[in-house]
Each structure stands twice: as C-alpha cells, then as structure tokens.
C-alpha cells in the first residue's frame, strides 16, 4: 500500500476545512451504506472468475495506461467495516482505546492484512462516481457532490495529478469487476 502521510494528513485537513458531519439518508455512498458491514478478514486476492460480476472494496495504488491505451489499475483489497462490526474489530486491535474512544473513529474501520496487489484493466466506458475531488485547484471550490459522475480519463488525470490538492490514493474505492474487467469505480467518502 503506497500511501503518503502527506496525503492522509491533507485529506484530514480538507475534511476539517469543509466541515463534514451529516450524511443524508438516501442511496448515496456514505460510510454506513457504502459497503457491507461484515467482510471476512481473510479475503482472496485472486482475479475474479471470468463469468462473474463482483464488487470489491480496495485501495487503488496506481492508475496507468498500457501501450494500447487501456487503463490498468493496481488494486489492494481491504476489509471495510461499519457500525458494530467496525467497533468490535477496532477495539480488538486497539484495546487501550476502549475508555478513550469506545469504538471505531468516525464509524468505520479498515483492515488491510494482505498487501497483495491485483492489476486489472478498466473498461473504457467504466462508470466512475466520485464524492470529493479537486475540481478547480482551489480549496474553497472542493465540495462533496455525492456520486458525481466523471469520465475515466478525468479520473486518470485527477489520480495522477502530483500538484492536486487531494490525494485520491488515500480513499478506498468500491470497484465492480465483470468478466475480469473493472466496469464501475465508486469513491468511498471518508469523514
């Protein structure tokens, strides 16, 4: 997992600046609704079978175009937990935090015991839904827009922008894989 401390701190500062807090009750991707609350801790890192469609929660470690112009992503599957499952796992891993925090901070907990990467191609017409990204290069213009559709090319440019205000590799994503190809990418909002 190639995450930078600066990216994580920048994401936290941005979250503070924007004043996150309330999650509207709808079918949008919020920490409580973005993924199943229960996931196994020993997830396989194998490429999905050819005839299946499956959704995985991952960190995206790289977004690159191959010689044919096909976008390829290196993904690292994670366990994404919310609610009671998150509290339970967090407190098992951090028993000293029981009195101080009482549960998982911000209501979610990420488990990443296996750092194996899986490289997957992305369909050229893949649906990409973002919650937060650098629209204009100005902090004051960054706002949460739930499930905002952007093109794959725009996601590639945003992800690989070293001067961007927001490190998109710091966010988890829910990817849908069909016939071995990513057909949908949904950024998970982090409070």
Short overview:
This protein has 191 residues and is an alpha+beta fold.
Which properties best describe this structure?
DUF4309 domain-containing protein; five-stranded mixed barrel; two-stranded antiparallel ribbon; single chain; 3 helices; disordered N terminus; globular; 191 residues; alpha+beta; 8 strands
Descriptive overview:
The chain has helices at 5-18, 83-93, 152-159; strands spanning 53-65, 71-77, 79-82, 108-111, 118-130, 148-150, 172-178, 181-187. The chain is of the alpha+beta class and 191 residues long. It has one domain. The protein has a 5-stranded mixed β-barrel with strand order 1-2-5-8-7. The chain has a two-stranded antiparallel sheet with strand order 3-4. It is globular and about 55 Å long.
